[in-house]
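Ticket #4471: structure output looks truncated?

Reporter: J.K.
Steps to reproduce: submitted the chain below (96 residues) through the standard prediction queue, then opened the result file.
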Amino acid sequence: MPQRVEFELDAAGVREVLESPEVRQMVDEAAGQVAERVRAAVPAPETVEAHPYTTDRQAARVTVADRRAMAWQAKDGILTRAAAGIGADVKERGGR
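Returned output as attached by the reporter:
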């Protein structure tokens, strides 16, 4: 019979980790890698940027400032493929 293990989540500790400079660095590096992959896939690479931000945790988004970007994503999945290419778990918005 398996042993019972008690676990108590330290919410303050988790928050401290998610807001830490180390996590900021990891998130920024991942966003930079995604941006580089997208730049390699589009004809206007100078329009691709990574933007760091903070909510209740460190975060970043990669944007393509080109009016053709929605078509590139719809047709070829440029952002989805780039994120998956670095090992990110890609989910549709709201599919947490």
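Triage note (M.O.): checked the attachment and the full token line is present. The mean pLDDT is 91.
Status: closed, working as intended.
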